[in-house]
Amino acid sequence: MLHLERYHRQITLKSFGIEAQKKLASAKVLVVGAGGLGCPVLQYLTAAGVGNIGIIDDDKVSLSNLHRQILFTSNDIGKLKTEAAFERLNAMNPEVQINIVSERITTKNAVEIILDYDVIIDCTDNFPTRYLLDDVSRLMAKPLIFGAIYQYEGQAAIFNVIDADGFTTNYRHLFPEPPKPGEVPDCNDAGVLGVLPGIIGTIQATETIKLITGTGNPLINKLMTINILDYQTAIFQIPKENLTKKNIPSTLKEFEQTNYELHCGIKQKGIINISSSEFKEIAEIPDTVIIDVRETDELPKLELPYLSIPLSQLKENLNQINKKNIIVVCQSGKRSFIGAQILTEILRQDYTISHLEGGIIQLNQEINE
């Protein structure tokens, strides 16, 4: 049942009305990622009265999330984000049906999950998942509301919707090929001001509402950018001619056979993952060197002796490595994984190469607990 009093302020808007509210109530929206972008998206779509909202995320709430993921509180630390989100959103608006999937979206489950939804919202933070979502949304003809953040800058766009000229674009029109591993750090490594994902996530929610209700001029085939340091904002028409057909699945069967980690240059063979609890013990093994692949000015510094070689300079400085047991570290574990991959490919079987899962953030968190 639609309680009109709850939505009265938006129903009375010119060019909105009860018909737009009914469209929201009938809509099914999937939010992929319940992090910095996903939290404001989920809050505003729930408050606005979108009838059916799906959430997929396999992560748990951590202390470092709370400065930007404002759907959660300190009491939620350690809980699955999907479960904590369900509890909060259901309390906010019990009229909305919330469906949760507490796992990572993959080529194995994406088609089945996405099938039931009208609109897909990309609130992810890594390139393999972005390209995966872009491809499956294109193949299933599902509108994709894109958002991304980097330090003080954010982007938003709508893909897979035909515009007035009969054209449609997708993420690959903006970025035909994935960047090289480590080329674009995520917020774990590069940092982010907590309000930025709130701004971009709110824009994503706004564009979703506009698209569903037919209100205003959504960002169809357009990219909006904003820099919150000076509020420089721009809207660009997405070029339609940049789409490469190289390595792009043309059917759902091809999609399900695509390795998006490999597509984005991420390989796993031969790399040993070590936990924070194992780190110090392994670091004390004779003939061991710790290589920090962060930039030299990044904090906090390791307390153990280490060799500092930024990831971008790793290949050119292999001569500095004079020990056979190598542990690669970074802020969050993502650059160290790539660094371990590079070393594994070059140094081959003569070395034992591992990387610290969760990075120095996780290491310091466990030390301080």
Rg over CA atoms, rounded to whole Å, is: 22 Å
CATH class identity of the largest domain = Alpha Beta
User: How much helix is in the residues?
Assistant: 25-40%
CATH hierarchy: architecture of the largest domain: 3-Layer(aba) Sandwich
Mean pLDDT, rounded to whole units? 88
Order the strands across the largest sheet as they lie in space. Answer: 3-2-1-4-5-6-7-8
Keywords: ATP-binding, Nucleotide-binding, Nucleotidyltransferase, Transferase
Domain Rhodanese: 284-368
GO molecular function: ATP binding; molybdopterin-synthase adenylyltransferase activity; sulfotransferase activity; thiosulfate-cyanide sulfurtransferase activity; ubiquitin-like modifier activating enzyme activity
Catalytic activity: [molybdopterin-synthase sulfur-carrier protein]-C-terminal Gly-Gly + ATP + H(+) = [molybdopterin-synthase sulfur-carrier protein]-C-terminal Gly-Gly-AMP + diphosphate
Word description of this protein:
One of its GO terms (molecular function) is molybdopterin-synthase adenylyltransferase activity. InterPro entries: Rhodanese-like_dom, Rhodanese-like_dom_sf, ThiF/MoeB/HesA, ThiF_NAD_FAD-bd, Ubiquitin-activating_enz. Residues 284-368 form the Rhodanese domain. Catalyzes the adenylation by ATP of the carboxyl group of the C-terminal glycine of sulfur carrier protein MoaD. This is Molybdopterin-synthase adenylyltransferase. The protein has 369 residues and is an alpha/beta fold. The protein has two domains: 4-263, NAD(P)-binding Rossmann-like Domain (Rossmann fold, 3-Layer(aba) Sandwich); 272-368, Oxidized Rhodanese, domain 1 (3-Layer(aba) Sandwich), CATH 3.40.250. 33% of the residues lie in helices and 18% in strands. It has 14 helices and 13 strands. It has helices at residues 8-11, 17-26, 38-48, 81-92, 110-114, 127-139, 171-174, 187-190, 195-213, 252-256, 260-263, 276-283, 334-347, 359-368, and strands spanning 28-32, 52-56, 97-101, 119-122, 144-150, 153-159, 222-227, 232-237, 272-274, 288-292, 307-308, 325-329, 352-356. An eight-stranded mixed sheet has the order 3-2-1-4-5-6-7-8, with helices on both faces. Helix 3 crosses helix 9. The longest helix is centred in the middle third of the chain and has 19 residues, at 195-213. The radius of gyration is 22 Å and the shape is globular. It starts with 7 loop residues before the first helix and ends with a helix.
